CDGSH iron-sulfur domain-containing protein 3, mitochondrial (Betta splendens), 127 residues
Amino acid sequence: MSTLVAKSQHRWVGLALRRRWAPAAPPPAISTLPSEPVVPSKQPFKAELQGGKRYSWCTCGHSKKQPFCDGAHKFKARGLSPLRFLPEKDATVWLCGCKYTNNPPYCDGTHKQDFVVSAALYEPTDS
Ligand code: FES
């Protein structure tokens, strides 16, 4: 019986020491969730596209060359990247400016929904 008590006390001391000397909890992980796009325009952009030419449509809303990408996502919206597309033929289209279309890169009327209408309009800055 005394051997059993001694073993259990030894185990308790061992656990107490491990807790005391255990390393601190790791720092909280940085979120890897993609950024949400900002709303640079509440209207679509009319664009005359050339067939066979490659375009990069801005998905983050931070570009100063709307509706096209200028690389701003690399610094302001990590996790988002431009949508690259290649029209088959010349066409005049309406490219989404609110960045919430369900048919990217084309406007589908989502900009008329309340969450876009009431959203703050993004103004690009130099920083
Ligand atoms: S401008 Fe985005 S859906 Fe029309």
Summary: The first helix runs from residue 2 to 21. The radius of gyration is 27 Å.
